[in-house]
Amino acid sequence: MWEFCILCCGCLLIPLYIFAALLVPAGLALGIINLHNCPIDPHLPLWLIYFNGFVFVRAIISCCVSCCCDKDGWCAAFIKNVVFIGDIVLMILGALYLFPLINSVNFEDSADLKHFCNKPTYIVAFIEIAWAWLYLFVVIAICGCTVCLLLIGGSTPPVGEGATSDGAKHYQFMGYVTATAPGVDLAHKFIGRGERSGDIEMR
Hints:
The chain is elongated, with a radius of gyration of 21 Å. It has one domain (2-199). Residues 154-163 and 194-203 have low confidence and may be disordered. The protein is mainly α. The longest helix has 34 residues, at 119-152. Helices cover 68% and strands 0% of the residues. This is Transmembrane protein. The chain crosses the membrane at residues 47-69, 81-102, 122-152.
């Protein structure tokens, strides 16, 4: 059951990543172009620039960590988790900027300019915040299912003395699906597993 939950959540991450690849450049461009075109809250275009720029920086950092750092070392885990926390902070700020404006925002130039905001800028910001919170929910679901799998499989070593073929498959499967979700390494360390499941070979 838990394997099925992780598989479903892991598969959901794929369209989320594809959607982000299309949305992030648009959000960054709209934030720059309409930097002074949202008087109802000037922070909103700035948030689009910071959030989408951070996504680009995060992708570069992830590539550098994969190429230059020991994937199992504390340095890589620290960097990934700090970046993930930065994502959460920006998501909270975006929600605080956007949601109070829902009932008062105006998209017509000829109307009350005090409550005006460029429509594409506002809509893209709304979509990006919704996407970010959905992504966070999926990651939390994957981490939760991973913890349950680790607890359930704790009595069956994946490798070494007492290992079984089913146990090895169990951990290998889990490693493949959870490899794309930030924060899963913390789940492994929390339960006390020294080895990452994705690195375990079937015996």
